[in-house]
Amino acid sequence: MTVFFENDPSNSSFWRSIILYGKNVASYKFALAKALIELKSKNKEFISLEELSEPFSANICEHLKNNEKQITSSSSTFLDNCKKFNLKEITQDELINVTKKIGFNNVIDAFHEVNGKTIPNRFFIDERKTKKGIQLTENFFKLYELEESENFYDEVESRWNLVETAWKLKLSPNLLDIDYDETSGLLITNKKDRRIGVTSAKNALNGYQKSKCFFCFDYISIISGSKKLSHVDHFFPHTLKYKNFIGYVDGIWNLVLACQKCNNGQNGKFAQLPSKELLKRLHKRNEYYCGSHHPLRERIIGQTGKTEVDRKDFLQKCFNDAKEKLIHVWEPEPVGDPIF
Question: What does the pLDDT read at residue 2?
Fold first, then answer.
């Protein structure tokens, strides 16, 4: 799936392609992404392995506290040392030394690979052999000239949570059985008789919308307290749940992020049916998931159809059914330029 950044060849799209589309056999790419974001505040172009090792290992150790499964292989010397650190069997200096030696063996080389190919916009240059570190590029610093950069950290964390939950449940990540819990705002999964909160729905959905309202393309944030804080909205309104609607309205396929104005402001959507043009946009968004390695992929396919033709037919049937029940069709005036 390359259309995500072919249509929008910006630094932010290339960054998100790394986080959202890559096929993961370990969580190291997420830890490296978070470490780079944390080190950005130092405003340094060159980052030594010593400096990189501290936030990289700290993020791994933090996730190990809740989920020991951080890799698909049966063993990892590096992870064993991170677990020892959590148990206070080794010091932080000892952990950093181990991280420098073996923690980056594969992740630095593979960080910029998406679907088996290296993306053209690199965010760092590997200089381990000559300088024992990495050189951050202009592309990386340009990311943080963007308003949407405030959302990147939580987007990485959300994808990490989805992947490690699947590993913990001994599932392929793309077979994770995920639904939306409106009360908590979380994506949840069911294991036997237990409901497990996985991650914030806002954080999981935002990357695919590139920090833009699904309906009007105004800027939205996933940072609590922001004046532009996004709302999780049901494309086919939630009220259809009680009207014998043919689709499962709390499914991932039907969830989008909206600005406050579109969700429930003056002239907002409320319980109206989005237009046919917006329906096409929903199909396109869902195809992003279905064409990627994202853990939500199979859930959407299972709820909407195995092929793209099936999924289009499903959405059309939902639209026809909803039109009979809701009557009124809604579409807002665009605020920003279309980007998906």
Answer: 45
Distance between CA atoms of 325 and 339, rounded to whole angstroms? 31
pLDDT at 190: 64
Instruction: Give the Cβ contact number of residue 128 at 10 Å.
Output: 14
Rounded to the nearest 5 degrees, what angle is found at the Cα of 210, between the Cα atoms of 47 and 28? 40
Among left, alpha and beta (phi > 0; psi -120 to 50; other), residue 168 is: alpha
Residues written for the chain: 340
Which has the closest alpha carbon to 254: 171, 321, 165, 163? 321
The two tokens of residue 321 are 């059914």
- What pLDDT, on a 0 to 100 scale, did the predictor assign at position 8? 61
CB count within 10 Å of CB 72 equals: 13
Give the chain's residues under pLDDT 70: 1-8, 22, 169-177, 179, 190-198
Are 18 and 111 contacting, i.e. CB atoms less than 8 angstroms apart? yes
Please answer whether residues 315 and 283 qualify as being in contact, where contact means their C-beta atoms are separated by less than 8 angstroms. Answer: yes
